[in-house]
Amino acid sequence: MRIARTLPPAAAPIRLRNILDGFQGSLRGQTEIERFRSELQDYFQVEHCFVLSSGKAALTVILQSLYNQHPDRNQVLIPAFTCYSVPSAIVRAGLKVSLCDIDPETLDFNLSKLQENLKSNKKPLAVVCPHLFGLPANIALLRNILADLDITIIEDAAQAMGGTENKYFLGTNGDAGFFSLGRGKAFSTVQGGIILTDSDQLAKEISRTIQKLSDQSVAKNLKHLVYALALSALMCPSLFWLPKAIPGLRLGETIYDPKFPMDNFSSFQAGLARNWPKRISALQQVRQKNVSFWQKHLSRFPWLQTIYPKNQLSNIYPLIRYPVLIKNNSLREMVLKSSHKHGLGIMPSYPDSIDGIQELEIVNNGQTFPGAKECSGKLVTFPVHSYVTRQDRQGILNCLENIQIKYI
Ligand SMILES: *Cc1c(COP(=O)(O)O)cnc(C)c1O
Question: What is the pairing mode between strands 126-130 and 152-156?
């Protein structure tokens, strides 16, 4: 066990000042939640906005509402490489998972495979398109392919709150979009989810579903308060070794579990989010600086293959983790081992493609997803969050230099 400075792979800090705001928010109750909700609606310039307990709860509610409108369609098309929360939410909504392979160079859908899938399967209720690590997926191209098919595009902007592409906010270009406010995302209120849509019809359904979620309780506010206090301390690199060493926390693991809680957003969380536009923009500036650092300095290591949209190299995105493919497996193991030993925050991503989840039934039984498999086996991410110091960055470069000198 390592008891020393350890970087988390991703982190959106929660400060004591924010926790005080959260406490005050909990005293104001529903008005505090309404304030946050209407600020979001103004900022993202959308017709309808809802807040609830998590990103997966947000996706579940969107899917349930769509299914109410189209009860004849029960399949949801998703990339074979994404967060396990996505299939969890689909199953929770009572629907079936249909997979499409991705392109490892972009992490976006493999578009020719997407067209094949649409031809050979039943018409899906929706396509869920993620912006993994904050890298914008090509929603415009997706929309072209789906143009005449009347298939809803749900933008999974769980990792991309506040990010933009061509002057539009990620999460506002699909028919519906959602953000996650969980720890390790672009901005955090401990947990939380946000739904955005311009569709009046869909919003009416969503609003009906959300009203059925359980109501505010003092106990819930208290739980979030305790959790926020713990997170604000334990996400610091000086203490992060502690939660990392407790196996029961399963930190950094992504788990498939359709039995997650579906709940309201608490007034404590709404208070915790106070001043979010300013805070998001400050966090983004730091992450952009680090993204540009990795872009510049990792090019020295020819065995690291950067994943970045080829025609957007001059755009510095505020990613939440900087993704890289290491095609040589023993080098990858070496990097991860060294990171673990020295607390460098370099981590693998999702442990397997979605078809590798044992308990999950998919509609494309027997198909393989080589692009997704490649990513789960070869991808690692470098930390870009605001706890990363100049010494940390140098330490990471030194680790890579050592491996390169020794083994290449
Ligand atoms: C985190 C995440 C989710 C789910 O959000 P939670 O708030 O953790 O439920 C969905 N999709 C992606 C891509 C994510 O990273």
Answer: parallel
